[in-house]
Amino acid sequence: MNTINSSPNSPYSDSYQPHLLLMKIVLIIFIAFELSCSGTTSSANSQESDHTRAIFVFGDSLVDVGNNNYVPLTIGKCDYFPYGIDFPGSISPTGRFTNGRTVVDIIGEELGLEYYIPPYLAPTTVGDVVLRGVNYASGGAGILNDTGAFLGGRISMDAQLDNFADTRNYIISNADVGGSLTSPNTFSKTLLQRALYIVVMGSNDFIGNYFSPVPSVSAPKPASLEMFVESLISRFREQLTRLYDMDARKIAVANVGPVGCTPLERTLNPLYATGDSCISFVNNAAILFNKKLKSLLMELNSNLVESKFVYADVYSILSHLIDNYQSYGFENYDSPCCKILAGAIQDLLPCSPTSILCGDRSKYVFWDMAHPTDATNVILAKRLLNDDSKDISPMNIRQLYYA
Predict the structure, then answer these.
(1) Whether the model pTM is above 0.90
(2) 173 membership: H or E segment, kind and range
(3) At CA 328, angle to CA 135 and CA 397, rounded to 5?
(4) CB-CB contact of 368 with 348 (8 Å)
(5) Rounded distance between C-alpha atoms, residue 348 and residue 323, angstroms
(6) Which pLDDT score is estimated for 388?
(7) Which of 22, 45, 150, 313 sits at a 20 to 30 Å CA gap from 303?
(8) Which InterPro entries does this one have (predicted)?
(9) CA within 13 Å, CB half, 321
(10) Dihedral, CA atoms, 101, 366, 59, 56, nearest 10 degrees?
């Protein structure tokens, strides 16, 4: 059963049973090839020839590729133009909260994938499609289950892990001969442990929870920011450990970006904005969380055997880009390309079919009130893929993918 906080029928339900024999054959061939390729990734040439590994994605609207299109009773959707207007080959909106590709789309392209990782809830994400990876991310989602409650339906991190458990169970049930859900055999275990896992979560816990002007009716806020951050880290520890317990070994975790620099936060807090500065108290909260997150990932690497948790410093990359936007080729860093109305209200609302677009979308850092443009995502993805420990540690995503 897939989980949304209330969900439709699972794409791994009994209605797909006629395909199980074919699925077993495909899985066995696929993973046998994976095994034959093991040990061949020590050089650049062997990396290029190595078989594609699966990628599983968890997160919020920054990496949602269309799951919220299928979430009932939510206002957190972008299944209409101009969202997706620059997505390659797109003739209809994709459900991505940007004009083009998300950062994980671009990471997949750069790693040589000839497809985009599909959304879990899409009716076509069934059968052998899941062997290549699945995207579970949902706009409005957070580490805490009550984050984003004002949006209505969304798939929290806990619910995304429930959905991944369904995917894992499906793979094990249809691939392993003599295996079980609690003791999978070599075939599925190899696929799952060689896969890359990307987690982009936490921004909404601040802008859609702690600092949200819309109070949550389901859970009171802690008395202090420090207590709130501790509650996030404690819950995230449990979630990442659960992911590890489901055979994930190579996990890249993005920290929270400079959310105080978004057009949304600048507009919500005009009294705290001085000149060209971002909203410092919001960014300071992200910095506090990020410091504790980095320590958490070091702790998990020490305590969980064969784990490779990678800390992706999105905050530093985007802060440097915003502070030096012209050197990156941008002309605007503090307002959205996609505007609804003139005046400050344009920075508080998502795009609409009647929105006015900027003249050159590649020159804007932000697409709407909170999400980066395709151009910004390209820079972020390439830094995370290829850069050194200044941006991502203890290895970059390309190295993690082939580890």
Answers:
(1) no
(2) helix 157-175
(3) 35
(4) no
(5) 22
(6) 83
(7) 313
(8) GDSL (IPR001087), GDSL_esterase/lipase (IPR051238), SGNH_hydro_sf (IPR036514), SGNH_plant_lipase-like (IPR035669)
(9) 32
(10) 20
Q: Rounded distance, CA 145 to CA 123, Å?
A: 25
- Write phi, then psi, for 64 (nearest 5 degrees): -65, 125
Q: Which amino acid is at 130?
A: V
State pLDDT tens for residues 323-361: 999 999 999 999 999 987 666 566 678 899 999 999 999
Q: Which amino acid is at 126?
A: V
H-helix or E-strand spanning residue 327:
none
Bond preceding residue 394 cis, omega within 30 of 0: yes
How far apart CA 159 and CA 220 sit, in angstroms, is 21
Using CB atoms within 10 A of its CB, is residue 272 exposed (0-12), middle (13-18) or buried (19+)? middle
Sheet-wide strand order for 250-254: 133-135, 55-59, 196-200, 250-254, 308-312, 392-393
Cα–Cα distance measured from residue 342 to residue 337, given in angstroms and rounded to the nearest whole number: 12
What pLDDT is recorded for position 274?
A: 63
b/e 108-144 (16+ beta carbons within 10 angstroms → b): bbbbebeebbbbbbbeebbbbebbbbbbbbbbbbbbb
Q: How far apart are CA 378 and CA 382, in angstroms?
A: 6
Decide: helix, strand or coil at residue 64. Answer: coil
Chain position carrying tokens 């880290």: 233
Instruction: Identify whether the C-beta of residue 163 lies closer than 8 Å to the C-beta of residue 120.
Output: yes
pLDDT tens digits along 130-141: 999 999 999 999
pLDDT value for 307: 99
> Residue 352 and residue 222: Cα distance in Å, rounded?
35
Given a contact cutoff of 8 angstroms between Cβ atoms, the answer to whether 326 and 246 are in contact is: no
